[in-house]
Write a structure and sequence with these properties.
This protein has seven helices and 17 strands. The chain is of the alpha+beta class and about 300 residues long. The strands form four sheets. Strands 4, 5, 6, 7, 8 and 13 form a six-stranded antiparallel sheet that branches. Strands 3-2-1-14-15 form a five-stranded mixed sheet, covered by helices on one side. The longest helix has 24 residues.
């Protein structure tokens, strides 16, 4: 079976289609109407403590302070410097929600420099495979590190885990070095752009070809793959032609009604991203047999 990914970025929207033997099986749309902060790591300063809310407000150097939920016995000190990561974007007058638990995401793993615990995605249900992955991770982590094996890690080789964890550890080392000399507040690490996240999250080893438009997005993905997934570099193709990638391939009609969630014939997943000032991802797994027999519009559940 031939598997292909098509990625097109237009303005603030990234569109991804996965084909299996020419049939669309995945449809992903990511729309960002403002700069998302999710995944960013900051060296922030504690502005105020609100014990009634059980939270601290952290100056990130952004327009609004970050909201940090705090356990009752673990309040920081006002003026103190803290490292935090954004978990949820702010909305209207509310600032982003942040956490002191820091992590870096890869294709197969999520690397946590200080969690001290390894775990495997619940979607990997085979106990023998879960045990195999945990054994691999236990031999790769160092000191206080912890790693979460993502669903995509199923059946991956030890060398794949080793290479990715090494890359994520290198990135963390750069973040830590930057943070040691940075002023407060400062941005220490910026999450990858939408097009790179799409490849990171959806391009498995079974993919035969990845076609990308425009050229700037192609170069971003190529640079990321050279560092994280060199086996994918030879599978990257830069879209050529005057017409848009999806129009040239006859796939543009799948996105004609993106403002309304749709279940489309032969598509296993459907997604709709509403623009309310942040990036949203709503996905619902749908039985392929049902879609083939009774293709119809159906709302995507959160």
């Amino acid at each position: 079976m031939r598997s292909e990914i098509f990625v097109e970025v237009v303005g603030d929207e990234a569109r991804v289609i996965v084909l299996e033997d020419g049939i669309p099986v995945d449809l992903i749309i990511e729309r960002e109407t403002k700069k998302s902060l999710i995944g960013n790591i900051y060296k922030g300063r504690v502005e105020t403590i609100n014990r009634g809310l059980g939270a601290a407000f952290i100056d990130l150097g952004e327009q609004t302070a970050g909201f940090l939920p705090v356990d009752q016995d673990d309040y920081p000190v006002e003026g103190e410097s803290v490292w935090v990561q954004v978990r949820r974007d702010g909305y209207k007058s509310k600032g982003p929600q942040v956490s002191c638990s820091l992590s870096l995401a890869g294709r197969f793993t999520v690397f946590s420099p200080y969690s001290g615990k390894n775990s495997v995605s619940k979607k990997i249900e085979d106990e023998a495979e879960r045990t195999r992955i945990l054994d691999i991770l236990s031999n790769l982590v160092e000191g206080e590190e912890g790693v979460i094996a993502r669903t995509a890690s199923e059946l991956e080789l030890k060398d794949d885990f080793s290479r990715e964890i090494r890359c994520l550890r290198e990135i963390w080392s750069e973040v830590r070095s930057r943070g040691e000399i940075a002023e407060t507040p400062s941005l220490l690490h910026r999450e990858s752009k939408l097009v790179v996240k799409a490849i990171r999250d959806y391009a498995g080893s079974e993919i035969d070809q990845i076609t990308i438009s425009p050229p700037t997005s192609f170069l971003e993905v190529k640079s990321w793959c050279e560092f994280f997934a060199p086996e994918l570099v030879k599978k990257l193709v830069r879209h050529q032609g005057v017409a848009s990638l999806f129009r040239q391939r006859g796939l543009h009609s799948l996105f004609d009604e993106v403002s309304e969630p749709l279940v489309l014939p032969a598509i296993r997943w459907s997604a709709c991203y509403r623009s309310d000032g942040s990036t949203h991802r709503n996905r619902r797994k749908l039985p392929r047999v049902f879609l083939w027999k009774e293709p119809q519009r159906q709302c995507v559940e959160n």
